[in-house]
Write a structure and sequence with these properties.
Elements lengths: L11 E6 L5 H17 L2 E4 L7 E8 L2 E15 L9 E6 L3 E6 L2 E6 L3 E5 L4 E14 L2 H8 L5
Antiparallel strand pairs: 1-3, 2-4, 3-4, 4-9, 5-8, 5-9, 6-7, 6-9
Length: 150
Amino acid sequence: MVKAPMPNLPVSTQRFSTSAWSPRECVPAWRDLYGRTIAKLEFEPLSADRLVVEATLQKLPGLSIVSMASTGLRFRKSPELIDDDGLILAIIDSGNWTGSQLGREARVEAGDAVLCTNAEVACGVTFGRRIMFRVPAERGGRRRAAGRSL
């Protein structure tokens, strides 16, 4: 059997930890660095206790993977943060995730998964460990740009 050579694909890995900031800087830094820049979400801690988040982001061509553990967070995707129509598959390892999008609400717990779109407003709460896979829906974006429905 002849094996085809594996293409040399660029992979980018970033690690984020709220332990890198003082308690006073922690929430604003997390909101700006991860929330508004990478996830395109607004975050609020659920309690006045220190926000604790550990995350690893891997970007490959056509796929982003985030492994994250956190204390309780409230999240919101506002219309101004919508920048693509990709899909996100969130798999809950521990804790839970409750979210609302397109008039529907889902609650998923350890061992469950949920599929969301990046193209619509959303809100919810989450805590624990989760893995998220983000895939761009490039064709959907082109169809919308061309004025055709999906």
